[in-house]
Design brief:
It is a single chain. The chain is about 40% helix and about 20% strand. With about 270 residues, it is α/β, with parallel strands linked by helices.
Length: about 270
């Protein structure tokens, strides 16, 4: 049985990239149900640039009279984007999809009813959209299929690597109940995906099915120390909730603090 899927694109003032993202959706081997652009108060030129695609009826514009913050925009994408479909995919406006992305990821969810969300690997591309010859995740360090059946499993994942948020396809029912914790700042996705494991298993497919754009304007280029401190507190709470994680979390937090201190030291000595 094939699953239907809606797509929510998070947009802000990147018309050229946004057009590429939309075009990659219109070329999917499995057509999405509805494509929403959740725009967070961009200049009028962005809507104007996308007008030919919006007028066709396949793409729905959900604008805002002002920029209300990335967390507000993300929350409304989860709350509204999946309505009327089995699945929801939330993507950034600067990424692109391979033609079989939706087909492969929804087929995986259909095959594994216990999984509420699935991520995958990606090709890295530059500002101009050229592939760099590298993948987001080193495929030799990941299994072909990885399953994370509960919250402790997701914590263990994040002590070693991560799940790329822009690659995740969700079951709409789980997505609608996801909580966007704005207090965690740039690391909101870590908490969101970890907490999602309370509703069912998450999974990772070691296939490059999308294109991740590497450029200076992306939010993930650096993280604030405040956000790391809050995430540390979150992990300490999980260690209290799941005592079997205490040793693992303590070692992880020590490594992270040491790494951040070393980076700050190197930055301070930069000529």
């Amino acid at each position: 049985m094939s699953l239907t899927v809606n797509v929510a694109i998070l947009s802000y003032n990147r018309a050229a990239f946004l057009a590429e993202a939309v075009d990659s959706l219109l070329l999917q081997t499995q057509a999405p149900g509805r494509i929403f652009i959740f725009d967070n108060g961009s200049d009028e030129s962005v809507a104007e640039a996308l007008k030919p695609r919006i007028e066709g009826g396949r793409v729905l514009w959900r604008g805002s009279d002002q920029n209300r913050g990335v967390h507000w925009n993300l929350a409304r994408a989860f709350a509204e984007g999946g309505e009327g479909s089995d699945c929801l995919y939330v993507m950034h406006d600067d990424d692109r999809l391979c033609p079989n992305f939706l087909e492969r990821q929804t087929a995986f969810l259909a095959e594994h009813p216990c999984v509420v969300a699935v991520a995958c690997n990606a090709y890295e591309i530059d500002d101009a959209g050229r592939r760099l010859g590298s993948l987001l995740h080193n495929p030799k360090r990941r299994e072909d299929r990885e399953f994370f059946p509960d919250l402790p499993a997701m914590v263990r994942l994040y002590t070693k690597t991560y799940m790329a948020f822009p690659s995740v396809v969700y079951r709409s029912e789980a997505a609608a109940k996801a909580t966007v914790r704005a207090d965690f700042g740039q690391l909101v996705d870590v908490v969101l995906l970890t907490e999602l494991a309370r509703r069912g298993a998450l999974a990772y497919v070691n296939e490059p099915l999308w294109e991740y754009r590497v450029h200076g304007g992306q939010d993930s280029s650096s993280f604030k120390e405040r956000d790391w401190r809050l995430l540390e507190g979150y992990y300490r709470e999980r260690a209290q909730e799941f005592p079997e994680l205490k040793g693992l979390i303590s070692a992880y937090l020590f490594r992270r603090r040491l790494s951040r201190a070393w980076k700050r030291l190197k930055k301070g000595f930069r000529p």
